[in-house]
Amino acid sequence: MRAGGRDPIREAVRLLADRRNAVALTGAGISVESGIPSFRGSQGMWAKYDPMEYATLHAFMQSPRKVWEMLTEMVSVCGEAAPNAAHRALATLEETGVVRAVITQNVDGLHQAAGSRRVIEYHGNMEELVCVSCWKRYPTRERWTPGSVPLCDCGEILKPNVVLFGEPIPWLAQEQAEEEARTCGLLLVIGTSAQVSPACDIPRIAKESGAAVIEINPEPTPLTASVTDIHLRGSASEVLRALTFLMQL
Predict the structure, then answer these.
(1) Once rounded to an integer, what is the mean pLDDT over residues 165-186?
(2) Residue 17 CB burial class (10 angstroms; 0-12, 13-18, ≥19)
(3) pTM of the predicted model as reported, rounded to 2 decimal places
(4) Catalytic one among 58, 87, 111, 123?
């Protein structure tokens, strides 16, 4: 985590200590160490399932049974996963008053399981099913069994309460996320390149509003050269453990 003869992690600690008004934006990279595959890359979900066939609202409405093949895998994987050190470190930073909120693009519920209290679920979550007709909601485990296509009491098919391609971001989540970005003193971008719209706007909103941006990703992303002030290279767990340890000294 050293670059250019300076110690970026200690500079990040200094910024966190000075501003203590941080918000975290997290993506799939923070949950990989919990056994949840990312969507992109050679081992990602989209290498196995074409998103245009399996992850659009149109595809779900046209062939719900087919889409539920992919969703069954997601529900199973998310249900078996446990928070890792990165999730726990963010919960610790919230408990100590350094991080005030987490905006997550993930749908696995691991931030809450780790103890984070202020979590904005930008893309929904897999723990709830919603009827495509009457909008009634159910806990996933009450209606879903592996290999099944869950049905509402009204007889229509249920879908996870997650944002598929072609669906808008829930307005309240988007409003809350953008407000957090506008008013934070520092944005931690963790495990995401923030390329998917409109989540890609969050780092830029924070930067334009005067926040420092600390990026935690193993490799540079499109954000690194454009909005990032400090890039901490490494896994989310490695870097967040180090940050949390140094913050407590």
Answers:
(1) 96
(2) exposed
(3) 0.93
(4) 123
